[in-house]
Structure formats: structure tokens, C-alpha cells
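Structure first, sequence second, as always.
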């Protein structure tokens, strides 16, 4: 297995069966983390890119079985920020030194291109690179957002097992998910995808397929984390993912997609107090500090144990900067686009 790992580190290639063996063998964890850390240093370097996250609406028309924002969950205080609020948060993020913003929401049909494009233009005028994470839309809507200044788009595939996908996404279609990812690419976005690790019924073979999928679509960004059961969802009683396996899938994502941008996700920290730092030391190179303010933070609850719900943006950013410095890494000084391979 050691030889297969060395080969993977050198070539970014691996057979599916071998990938499953790496996933199954706990004795290789540290070696995989170290390999991912080396590849991260060689390809994207020591800079950690910070993206300010604005959670601008928690209203969602979808009903994903794992997510606290699913439409059938009545135990959530729903909110939708006004355009002025979103822009004010962006200005604040600018003052805090951010150069990239991630605008995230549930699938909220209130935000049509007519309403969202002026907001994007105003934020663009502040000099930000903009990432959108607002779900499935028709191609012409993606095109409108690209034209208004959005640069990147995050849309996790969640799982490439279409049976599991169907089970956990009532009323949604796996094929449409794929079509959306293709449309985003077509419109010229940097495309981010990712998966949940530890969904009920998910096998190591499924995770291997997820990893090979990220490579097959040449994902520019890969965001993944453990599935964390939420008591207000149909998966309340499910076992949930474990930190170590999620970290391992993330490290393997780095080995398969050496120059991708890979965030150390908040879900990693929900399961381990040093989760994001360990992720940064096992392949990740991006952190998305939450710059949403006040009560909104505590209302945007996908899963329990989300860190920093009572923090201010200043505190979140300060704490993260210190942690990054403490492990000898630097803060990215540019907008952190994926550096294309030669
Ligand atoms: N546990 C972990 N991650 C979750 N997400 C949604 N619900 C959960 C949960 N219970 C993730 C999904 C989605 C992203 C925004 O949050 O993968 O794409
Ligand atoms: Fe809505 Fe996204 Fe949650 Fe699904 S994962 S219910 S689309 S916010």
C-alpha cells in the first residue's frame, strides 16, 4: 500500500480498488495526511486563503434529509437579509481585509437575477472576488450571475451514489445536479463541489467514487466534511460521520486534485476542537471565516455544534489568523484563484 500511496503522491493517479484500500486501512492515515500536506505545499504553497462567508438567507425550498434548513423544519427562525444589509456586511468584510466573499443561502427563490444582480454588482465594485453558493438554478440564471461579477460557484454533489442521492434529496434529481455543475463550467465559473462523509448507507466505495468524480470534473474547489445528524431532520437518529474519515477523504482529495482550493470546513471543527487546523495540515489551504453578524449566525444552522455562532466577525477572523500563524502558515495576499497547471 505504501508504494501505491507514493505513486498517488507522484502522479495523482490511482485505481478505484486501491483508493478503497487506502480508505479502509487506518494504519496509513498519518502517511496520507503527510503526503497531502507535502503536495499542498508544493502546488498551492503555504498561504491560507481567507474567504468571508455571508449567510444571507436561510430560506430553502428544498428538503434535504440531513439539513436543518430543509423546508419542513419548522424549528428554525427564517430570515432573509435586505440588499443593504448584505452590502454593509461586504463593506465590513472589506475593512477586515477580505478580498473574497462567499455568498451563501438556502435555495430561496426570492433572490431572482433581478434582485441579486444589483447586489453582486455593488459587491464587485468593492473589489471582491465573489463565490456564490445558492443551489440549483437554470443555466440562464447562472449566466446572469456570472455577467454581474460572480467568479466562482459552490455546488456539492453531496454523494455520487445516485441511489443514496435520491434517498436523501426528496424531489431533487441527481441528473439535474450534474447538469448544473456542467452549466456552471460552461458559463465560465471556477467550480467547487464536494460531498458529505458518513451518510447512512454510504460505503468506502461511494467515497472513492466521490473522490474520482472531483478529479473527473477537474473541480477547482473541493469542500467536504462529516455528516453531522441534526435533531430537527429525518436523520436525527443516524450515526453520523467521523472526523478522521472526513479528514482522510479531504487529504485524498488533495492528492487527486493537487492544485485545487480545498477549505478546512466548519463541519470539521464541529467534531474536533482543532478540526480546521488539522485539516490545514492535511491538505486544506482555504478557510471561510463567517462574517455574518448577530442573530443571523445562530439561525443559519445546518447541523448542531456549528462553531462561532456567538462570535463577531472580528473575533472569528482574529482567532483564525492567530491559529494560522501558530502553525507557521501565512495569509494569502491575493484573491486566491485556482492557479492553473501549466
Ligand atoms: N452535516 C454536515 N454538513 C451538512 N450540510 C448540510 N447539512 C449538513 C449536516 N447535517 C452541508 C451540505 C451542503 C453544505 C452547505 O452544508 O453538504 O452542501
Ligand atoms: Fe436547502 Fe442546501 Fe440545506 Fe438542501 S443542503 S435543505 S438545498 S440549504
Amino acid at each position: 500500500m505504501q508504494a501505491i500511496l507514493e505513486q498517488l503522491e507522484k502522479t495523482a493517479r490511482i485505481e478505484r480498488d486501491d483508493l478503497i484500500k487506502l480508505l479502509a486501512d487506518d494504519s496509513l492515515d498519518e502517511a496520507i495526511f503527510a503526503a497531502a500536506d507535502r503536495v499542498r505545499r508544493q502546488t498551492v504553497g503555504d498561504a491560507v486563503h481567507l474567504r468571508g462567508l455571508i449567510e444571507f438567507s436561510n430560506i430553502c425550498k428544498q428538503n434535504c434529509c440531513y439539513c436543518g434548513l430543509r423546508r419542513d423544519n419548522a424549528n428554525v427562525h427564517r430570515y432573509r437579509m435586505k440588499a443593504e444589509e448584505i452590502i454593509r456586511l461586504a463593506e465590513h468584510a472589506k475593512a477586515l481585509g477580505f478580498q473574497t466573499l462567499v455568498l451563501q443561502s438556502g435555495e430561496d427563490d426570492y433572490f431572482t437575477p433581478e434582485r441579486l444582480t444589483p447586489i453582486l454588482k455593488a459587491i464587485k465594485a468593492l473589489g471582491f472576488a465573489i463565490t456564490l453558493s445558492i443551489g440549483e438554478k437554470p443555466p440562464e440564471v447562472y449566466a446572469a450571475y456570472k455577467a454581474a461579477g460572480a467568479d466562482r460557484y459552490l455546488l456539492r454533489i453531496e454523494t455520487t451514489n445516485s441511489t443514496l442521492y435520491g434517498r436523501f434529496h426528496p424531489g431533487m434529481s441527481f441528473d439535474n445536479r450534474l447538469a448544473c455543475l456542467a452549466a456552471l463550467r460552461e458559463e465560465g465559473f471556477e467550480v467547487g463541489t464536494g460531498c458529505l462523509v458518513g451518510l447512512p448507507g454510504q460505503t468506502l466505495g461511494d467515497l472513492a467514487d466521490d473522490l474520482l468524480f472531483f478529479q473527473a470534473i477537474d473541480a477547482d474547489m473541493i469542500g467536504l466534511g462529516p455528516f453531522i445528524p441534526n435533531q430537527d431532520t429525518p436523520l436525527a437518529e443516524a450515526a453520523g460521520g467521523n472526523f478522521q474519515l472526513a479528514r482522510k477523504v479531504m487529504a485524498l482529495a488533495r492528492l487527486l486534485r493537487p492544485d485545487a482550493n480545498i477549505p478546512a470546513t466548519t463541519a470539521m471543527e464541529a467534531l474536533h476542537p482543532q478540526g480546521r487546523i488539522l485539516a490545514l495540515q492535511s491538505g486544506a489551504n482555504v478557510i471561510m471565516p463567517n462574517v455574518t453578524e448577530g442573530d443571523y449566525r445562530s439561525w443559519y444552522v445546518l447541523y448542531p455544534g456549528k462553531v462561532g455562532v456567538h462570535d463577531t466577525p472580528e473575533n472569528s477572523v482574529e482567532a483564525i489568523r492567530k491559529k494560522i500563524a501558530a502553525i507557521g502558515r501565512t495569509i494569502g495576499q491575493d484573491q486566491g484563484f485556482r492557479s492553473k497547471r501549466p
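Margin note: Residues 36 and 283 are 5 Å apart (CA to CA).
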